[in-house]
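A protein record pairs a chain with a discrete description of its three-dimensional fold. The following entry can be read in just this way.
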Amino acid sequence: MSLEEASRQLEQTIHDAQVAFDCIGLGHLDRAHTSALTARTAADAAENALRVALRDTNAPTDDDDL
């Protein structure tokens, strides 16, 4: 589940970063700023989801006691 969420958030990051880039080219700096912030938020969410996936992957299981 966390890897799917990380992928989704990274796709959102790419989209928001592209919108920010395009807005800069068009001179819409307020919208570019907003899109850059949402891209950063999505990237942070992706990083957090990956951290959870890594933690879950490294978590001990019942089989580790054998």
